[in-house]
Description:
Shape: globular
Oligomer: single chain
Number of strands: 0
Low-confidence stretches: none
Amino acid sequence: MLHRDYLLEVIEQFVATVSKALAGALLQRNIDDAQEVEAAIADLVQLDPQTAMSLSPESLVTMMMLSGTGDAVAGYAAYALYRLGDAYDGMGQHDTADLRREQAMAIAQAFGGNVEEIPEEFRALEAKLSA
């Protein structure tokens, strides 16, 4: 029960942080917001952002598995990384965009997800982005 409550709190904080920052990264092309999304993802795997975001897709998956929360947060991380790829494309940083999408796809594949599946908690963000 305690582990479940902890995971729910982690997911809630992640969604709140990522929703705000991803909106800024996508709508305003704000690099600081993109880096805030990366920091939130790195926090999920308990690494500093620079290290986590420089990992190969396979290594990032390994770190998620070792974190012990990978199964619970994989869909959220994959979604955030995939949309972050769109943000980096909008900023003209195509190599970084490609890496973020590759990381997202590796996570989705490893944990049985789909990068195009929008977690319920991010539907309000998607509506905002579509408006």
